[in-house]
Write a structure and sequence with these properties.
This protein has 224 residues and is of the alpha/beta class. The protein is 47% helix and 12% strand. Strand 4, helix 4 and strand 5 form a beta-alpha-beta unit.
Length: 224
């Protein structure tokens, strides 16, 4: 049986950007565009009605921006299991960190290779975060430049995690892959994957990106 295509909502206030993505995606039978929006507010409304698998979300838009729209989509009282993939210009976009806090499962850079854009959509649709180690390290540079959150801002304590899970969380926060963590701790990648899974559950984290945020919020990873 052929799997159903990944249902995508494109959100960008530039029609040319949406048109380019539309043409790109049309050539791939495992991906389907179910709607388009030019504002964050429209994206929220269409997500509730269309229930796409992935929203490819711009950040800078008139009215409701991509960060606020992401928070509304991922924090809906009746979750639609839609995942948000932010579309941004990473090198000069100071809002990426806010988008991840709002619940985005990753981000795309507008000038990245088209094949990478398609791969990113598939990764997020499969339930993973778009946070390859090299990308994580770039994010960490952004985190390190930002002020620490105010006291009490981190809602989930770390008292329920084991010592080994704490070690794994630190290494996730440093941007290491499962294979790199396994080598660092002299355990198997399968064991690392199990630890990451338990961390996601215990910390009520949606994906690996949120584990990186937890590591920084709790002071487990310090700027170098």
């Amino acid at each position: 049986m052929t799997a159903a295509p990944v249902r995508i909502l494109l959100v960008d206030d530039q029609p040319l950007v949406r048109a380019g993505l539309r043409v790109l995606i049309a050539d791939h039978g495992d991906l389907e565009i179910v709607g388009e929006a030019g504002t964050g507010g429209e994206a929220v409304r269409l997500t509730a009605r269309l229930r796409p698998d992935v929203v490819v979300m711009d950040i800078r838009m008139p009215g409701t921006n991509g960060i606020d729209a992401t928070a509304l989509i991922t924090g809906a009282p009746d979750p639609v299991h839609t995942r948000v993939l932010v579309l941004t210009t990473f090198d000069d976009d100071e809002y990426v960190y806010g988008a991840l806090r709002a619940g985005a499962s990753g981000f795309l850079v507008k000038d990245m290779d088209m094949d990478d854009i398609l791969a990113a959509i598939r990764v997020v649709a499969a339930g993973d975060a778009l946070i390859a180690p090299s990308v994580t390290r770039r994010l960490i540079e952004e985190f390190a430049a930002r002020p620490a959150p105010p006291p009490g801002a981190a809602a989930t304590p770390l008292t329920d995690i084991t010592g080994r899970e704490r070690e794994v969380l630190v290494l996730v926060g440093r941007g290491l892959s499962n294979a790199e963590i396994a080598a660092e701790l002299f355990i198997t990648p399968a064991t690392v994957k199990a630890h990451v899974g338990r961390l996601l559950t215990k910390l009520s984290a949606r994906d690996r990106i949120q584990l990186v945020i937890h590591a920084y919020d709790h002071g487990l990873v310090a700027p170098r």
